[in-house]
Design a protein that fits this description.
This is ABC transmembrane type-1 domain-containing protein. The protein is mainly α. It is 94% helix and 0% strand.
C-alpha cells in the first residue's frame, strides 16, 4: 500500500511516465546482470575445483603407475639374479 502511494507520488511529480519506466527497467537489468555475474563466478569456481580434482587424480594415477613399474623392475631383477 505504501509502495503504491510512493509510486503515485513519484508519477505525479514526473510528467513523462516513460522516464520512470526506463529507470525501473535500468534497475531491473542491472540486478539481472549482477545475478548473471554471480552465476558466472560460481561456474568458474566449480570448473577450477573440478580441474584441480582431475589434476590430483592424474597425479595419483601417475604415482601409482611409477610405483608399480618400480616394483615390477625390482622383482624381475631379483628373479633374474636368482636364475
Amino acid at each position: 500500500m505504501k509502495a503504491c502511494a510512493v509510486k503515485k507520488k513519484i508519477l505525479s511529480k514526473v510528467k513523462n511516465h516513460e522516464v520512470v519506466v526506463v529507470a525501473v527497467v535500468v534497475v531491473v537489468v542491472a540486478r539481472v546482470v549482477v545475478v548473471i555475474e554471480v552465476l558466472v563466478a560460481v561456474v568458474v569456481v566449480v570448473v577450477v575445483v573440478v580441474a584441480a580434482a582431475a589434476a590430483a587424480v592424474v597425479v595419483v594415477v601417475v604415482v601409482v603407475v611409477v610405483v608399480v613399474v618400480v616394483v615390477v623392475v625390482v622383482v624381475v631383477e631379483k628373479v633374474v639374479a636368482v636364475e
